[in-house]
Amino acid sequence: MSIKAEEISALIKQQIENYDSDIEVNDVGTVIEIGDGIARVHGLDHVMSGELVEFSNGVMGMAQNLEENNVGVVILGPFTEIREGDEVRRTGRIMQVPVGDELIGRVVNSLGQPVDGNGPIESTKTRPIEAKAPGVMDRKSVDEPLQTGIKVIDSMVPIGRGQRELIIGDRQTGKTSIAIDTILNQKEEDVICIYVSIGQKDSTVSGVVETLRQHGALDYTIVVNAGASEPAPLLYLAPYAGVSMGEEFMYNGKHVLVVYDDLSKQAAAYRELSLLLRRPPGREAFPGDVFFLHSRLLERAAKLSDDKGGGSLTALPFVETQAGDIGAYIPTNVISITDGQIFLQSDLFHSGVRPAINPGLSVSRVGGSAQIKAMKKVAGTLRLDLASFRELESFAQFGSDLDKATQAKLDRGQRTVEILKQGLHQPQRVEYQVAIIYALVNGFLDDIPVEDVVRFEEELHAYLKQHGSELLNHIRETGNLPEKDEFNKVVSDFKNTFVVSE
Length: 502
What we know:
It is a peripheral membrane protein. It is a single chain. With 502 residues, the protein is of the alpha/beta class. The chain has helices at residues 5-18, 151-156, 175-184, 202-214, 232-250, 263-276, 290-298, 329-337, 346-350, 373-379, 382-396, 404-420, 430-441, 453-467, 469-478, 484-497; strands spanning 28-35, 38-42, 51-55, 60-66, 71-75, 87-94, 96-99, 107-108, 125-128, 166-169, 191-198, 221-226, 255-261, 302-303, 312-320, 340-344, 363-364. Strands 8, 10, 11, 12, 13, 14, 15, 16 and 17 form a nine-stranded mixed β-sheet that branches. Strand 1 and strand 2 (38-42) form a beta hairpin. The N and C termini lie far apart (120 Å). The model has no long low-confidence stretch (mean pLDDT 92).
């Protein structure tokens, strides 16, 4: 069989025509040092700060220190299989997480991967975890309340949508309970909640998730969990992942609440990371940019202007204090970034005042303009009354003979303290809060024994539900108090039916 020359030339021409030159350029570096979750990589000259890189065994890392002859990479996963001399490739992607409705009701890690065993998350959208906070012109003043359902907060340290309100206190003073109750209270408020757990025990987080599930709150909540056993980089990234998921909803005109529990552990993880990257330590061994760590996170909370869709992202950062010291480095930093703080005191907690909020040290710098008119009217003097009661209480321990006015103040103060106590996972709608505080400040409880005050409140709510529903609706819908005579009549009628225990 002879081969014809023209056939060969036709074949060669065909091959040349179909030849497509694909040149693939990869930026590849080499691991020169590895240990404690940090790799030093040589050869990635064009890598970006915060860019994801991939090690030869598939584990991802994030470029942090861009030095003259090497790059410090934090490893986002197990690092025991990585060896010196291994290849590292650039991905060209900045660290990002999946976002969107598909995440609601799920428990994810700092990278947005599901950890609840309910299968993969079919999300098509992603957002970079670091984003520029909305500018001055993109925002508007906080003017809408975020009802927490907790009487002492909604009456004295109100929180507005788009605000950053710090929750600060020692360990075991009920900080997480406040966050959970606030999330539970958003059931009918059309607010999407994101609970970011940083460095907590897995058993604690599963308890929180179970509580949310039992109360039906998981239907509008995303849980981001960076557990205590996770590497430090994941604890550092968790809050940024949470706020990025929230921003997706905020920029689509929705209202979001993000809880960071807690930023002290994030700062400690960042300190660990920075020291391993050999960045110079400053006060309390924290790196110099630890203020920027929290400010660039919390500044992303905002109430957007109507041109931008009018969405909002409210941040509730937590900080744990040691022995009530709010003058330590991280607490003072975060206090200066936020719009107020709610201070929980262990003395109050142990004496049975729960939630153990100290109204004297707690403040909301912008929440007053977000409070509904009815609450503003009834709770106006509450903080002063409580402060003077605490002062008189310590003074009255030494004196036996008290004049009538002082005794009346003490009696009113005791009843105020009782009214502001609240059971666990029992958030109250704002109209019920207004009703009981109205009864308190208008003297309806002055002759009720202190031990009957809680029962009085429960029965008043039940009575109003039956006989004063139009008054409750009026408060809820208009935000104003009903006619004084009408309100007084309903409360008086109830009081006449209330039986004092012997």
